[in-house]
Amino acid sequence: MTTHIDAIIFDLDGVITDTAEYHYLAWKKLGEEIGIPFDREFNETLKGVSRMDSLERILEHGGRQNDFTPVQKEALASKKNDHYVQLIQTITEKDVLPGVENFLKQIKEAGIKIAMASSSKNALFVTEKLGLMTYFDHIVDAATVVRSKPDPEVFLKAAKAVDAAPANCIGVEDAAAGVCAINDAEMFAVGIGDRSVLGHARMILQSTKELNLETFLNEYAKKD
User: Fold this and answer.
1) Catalytic: 13?
2) Residue extent(s) of CATH 1.10.150.240 domains in the chain
3) If residue 114 lies in a helix (H) or strand (E), which one and from where to where?
4) Catalytic choice (13, 82, 141, 184)
5) What is the pLDDT of residues 28-81, one digit of tens each?
6) Which neighbouring-strand residues pair with 190?
7) Entry's InterPro entries (predicted)?
8) What fold does the segment set 7-17+95-221 form as a domain?
């Protein structure tokens, strides 16, 4: 049995703060602008997926995947981001999900590295608005990654940035694609949310209120 953990690596959206609603509203606005309406159920399929991949899914959903050139698609993705950035201007420290900051303090005090592996290009901006920058040793966002989740690149990059061996890392996610990325990085996956969606994680919590380092250590110790 081993309890040695080099780093705990967090997703941002839905784990540290709930920006999912802002993403939904921004995509919905773009969808309306190009004549592709969609609902919250379809929006669930975009969770943890990069901006360009999300756009491709939306265009396919509306049967318009061949109506735009690559340059036009980049412009559409940029427009969605403009909508999103406008919405997140109002984020404050009050938008940190329950239990998160206390958990970050526990990790810091235990001398374990803290990193972020986010699909958002706005991860630094959002983390700063939340007042949590001092806790993170490194943040990897979509701007520095070639392949988006479920590819493990973003988690492997975060581990490397804090000199952590992937096998000694715990990844925390709320999206199915993110849990796949953690598993493929050969890290210990913790899912926050619906068991029916995140059943491939090694440990599942119903909400961030259950985040606790002792629980993590106990479950991690059983992994071998």
Assistant:
1) yes
2) 20-88
3) strand 113-117
4) 13
5) 999 999 999 999 999 988 887 888 999 999 999 999 999 999 999 999 999 999
6) 172, 203
7) B-phosphoglucomutase_hydrolase, Beta-PGM, Beta-PGM-like, HAD-like_sf, HAD-SF_hydro_IA, HAD_sf, PGP-like_dom2
8) Rossmann fold (3.40.50)
